[in-house]
Design goal:
The chain is mainly beta and 106 residues long. The chain contains 2 helices and 6 strands, in the order E-E-E-E-H-E-H-E.
């Protein structure tokens, strides 16, 4: 399956909202922002409340959308997360909209 079109002129921006968090680690709400590059690679930045110590965040790089989803979405279950496209399109995120994620339109 094509992750992201190599002819895409710009990166695609998205956000991940955690609807439930059985682990208690990431909490609920908007937990990270991400970008999918034309190569299919994904970079995410965990959101933190910079006004509250400790105000640390981390950035992670994944070789593919599938790798990102396998680590941060699938373990929480199909109804625990929602991805919202902020700019651009990503065919794999859109394809998973009905199967694994509840996605809002781009």
């Amino acid at each position: 399956m094509e992750l992201h079109s190599a002819s895409a002129p710009e990166p695609s921006l998205f956000t991940l909202e955690r609807l439930t968090d059985s682990t208690g680690i990431s909490a609920t709400g908007r937990v990270l922002d991400g970008v999918v590059f034309h190569t299919g690679q994904v970079v995410v930045c965990w959101r933190s409340d910079l006004r509250q110590p400790p105000a640390h965040s981390s950035i992670a790089v994944y070789p593919s959308v599938r790798a990102f989803l396998d680590v941060h979405v699938a373990p929480h279950g199909p109804a625990a997360s929602k991805i919202r496209m902020l700019h651009g399109r990503c065919s794999e995120l859109e394809a998973l909209g009905s199967a694994e994620l509840r996605q809002e339109g781009a």
